[in-house]
Amino acid sequence: MKKVVLVTGANSGIGLALCERLLSQDAQLQLCLACRNMQRAEAARQALLVSHPQAQVTLLHLDVGNMRSVLRAAEEFKQKYNRLDYLYLNAGIMPNPRVDHKAFYKGLFSSNVVHMFATGEGLLTQEDKVTPNGLQEVFATNLFGHFLLVRELEPLLCQMDHNSLVIWTSSSNARRSAFSLDDIQHQKGREPYSSSKYASDLLSLALNRHYNNRGLYSSVICPGLVMTYLTYGILPSFFWTLIMPIMWLIRIFTNTFTLSPYNGADALFWLFMQKPESLDPMAKYHSLTSGLGNNYTQPHKVRTDSQILSLIFFMPILECMDFHVSQLLFLFVPFIMDTVHK
Fold first, then answer.
1. Residues 95 and 68: beta-carbon distance below 8 Å
2. For 175, left (φ over 0), alpha (ψ -120 to 50), or beta?
3. pLDDT in tens, 5-19
4. Count of CB atoms within 10 A of residue 333's CB?
5. Cα–Cα distance between 137 and 299 in angstroms, integer?
């Protein structure tokens, strides 16, 4: 049986690099690129077909920040396919990133420079906004839209004859300090990207607890420091040109500077090669690149603490067709864990 793979945010960066690697590994798979910009999606599809002319590559119009778009895309996908083996939740945004330049220059010439570049801790803030659905944009795009997609594709993901794997692209910027159970959408903070990525780590754990007995597994990855449009949007392009030699030098001493989308996609590709049931449900799989340029994947436990006694499990009211928070489109239900280890 041919494997079916759906990748969100597949038209550039890590998503496109992953698609190229997947087709190089298995030319028979059925690959679906789910993207917001269909012009760029078609360009990505054509680029893949140049190197893999016999590949089965289709397009799906999907804006994960728009809940109506998510439901339409899920319905269209279910009409085309009767199974889904791998669902890569890769799309994401970091709107209007701002850098604390004083902290940046201070960190640039300190012993903390590697950690600063690898995580962005203490450096990055973003300006979020509210979507027409009444949700915070970063929360909706990076987390909730993807969760709704999982729920809608549940009939294809939970089947008796095979196991399936949901894979979240997280970040080294996913920090516990930026996330609060009392402010899941991060309406009151200035680090919505970090909060959403930490929440995706937790949601992956919750999905495993809820769905493993039905053949659906979930994993989360960290691509390392990768130069994509998200990264280049943080600082002016000329500045990246100036500091890139420094970053290549630093990579000799750290394995988290993957830098290229191909390297950053290593953990995503590695998971494709594994049996879903063999994976550690509490692990976050990191793409790493040695100083000599060799890529490898390494698991680390998802960072939680003793105060996180519940994971947020979202229960959409799917029969409701008016997508506004005030009309109770979504009902948030706490998903209680027996224990969450550090």
1. no
2. beta
3. 999 999 999 999 999
4. 11
5. 30
Which of 193, 211, 217, 285 is an active site residue? 193
Mind listing the pLDDT tens digit for each residue in 23-48?
999 999 999 999 999 999 999 999 99
Number of Cβ within a 10 Å radius of residue 135: 24
Which residues fall within 8 angstroms of residue 158, CB to CB, at 6 or more apart? 164, 211, 214, 215, 216
Examine the residue annotation and report whether 193 is marked as an active-site residue of this protein: yes
